User: Fold this.
Amino acid sequence: MGCCGKKTIIHTGKNIVKGYTRLATDTLHITEKYEFTDRRVRACQKCEKNYWIGRRLFCSICKCFVPAKARVIDEKCPLDNPAWRIKGEEK
Ligand code: SF4
Assistant:
């Protein structure tokens, strides 16, 4: 995660930890999914740039594991898919 846009290695590392942590806490029902997570995942499921390893969904451009990346608010789609934008930043 975090290879989309100009980010430092530290920022990328933080987002990877954030995404996987949030995925774990959502799965354990400790937290609730953000409203944007499912929208982002659905967009990636339909995207021609996705790929699957078993039942795991990845982006072939950024190589991210989509369910984790989709839980980090400041992550972006490298193709700027509108479904990845947060309310208020629509163009
Ligand atoms: S992050 Fe963007 S480019 Fe990558 S699979 Fe999802 S919609 Fe496609």
Observations:
- Residues 9-80 form one domain.
- The first helix runs from residue 9 to 27.
- Helices lie at 9-27, 35-46, 66-69.
